[in-house]
What we know:
single chain, elongated, 2 domains, 12 helices, alpha/beta, Rossmann fold
Amino acid sequence: MQLKKNHIFYGNNLEILKSFPDKSIDLIFADPPYNLQLKDTLHRPDQTTVEAVTEDWDKFENFNTYDEYSMKWLVECKRILKSDGALWVIGSYHNILRLGTCIQNLGYWILNDIIWHKTNPMPNFRGTRFTNAHETLLWCTTSRKAKYTFNYQNLKELNDGKQMRSDWYIPICSGKERIRKINNQRAHPTQKPEALLYRVILASSKKGDVILDPFIGSGTTAVVAKKLQRNFIGIDNNKDYVELAKKRVKRAPILEKDVVSIAQSRKELPKVRFGELVEQGIIPPGAILTDAKNKFIAKVKIDGSVASKNITGSIHQVGAKIQDLYSCNGWDFWHVKNSKSTTLLDKIRTEYRNKRSALN
């Protein structure tokens, strides 16, 4: 079967996944059934009914049945992912540990577990447990050696210039974002917020990539993919959800080209040697380097190495040794110190690289 991009399929997701070509997908976001195992209707203190996941698609006979189903769709996802592709899976304490076991047994490599802190979680009305205020996402590659996409610099910019952490504070769908039926009931019980998918897609894909959601549900993945000028494919075995997702996608805008174009990651940028900055006089021999807290001091030598006490080497080697660490990114650790201020080496490198590119 030729891959049909920007389409939402209605039908059995296992059968549809089997029809996709090998190594044809760049990124998969999977929000599978959680197997919540709910038995009793939950009521609030005022005796109104709590909207919960009661649909048949979330019901499994036992854990073995759930595991067998999980293995089947995860096998197909691994087959259709490109060698440098990535899989994101989301779940709760009901299922994420079982999914993690399946993922590792199939040879995927888990890069991170992300904690989605719900800033407005549903309370535990019975008062018998802690309020369930988070879900877990597993970010995985097809193998340990896979060269996956990670737009580190863009995530850093999104986080006010600080390295993005693995705990994400994002509210659940509410207000206007929560899609409801005419009777005001939720159109889908597990609708994910667009902000969550925005971060996942921005982090792990490039413009024009093909993103698959094998449990498309309300269509959030497809909506965000379209906005960010990625191709999407969705699958769901519920006809109402498929129609809902298609309507959402049709209404979703596409962001302008200059907005979607993002900065290159550090790995993709032209190389700049520290010694080149020394040769050019940008950071002259004898310049004093210090860390952000002025705890460590080093001096730049004529060959581009640096010296701190009895330790000499590159900015990375010295930064690691004086902190007793295995490794250190000297560009992010050292600052050039003068009488009035200090400037991070990476900022100096970026300014030099931009000027060099402009000349070329």
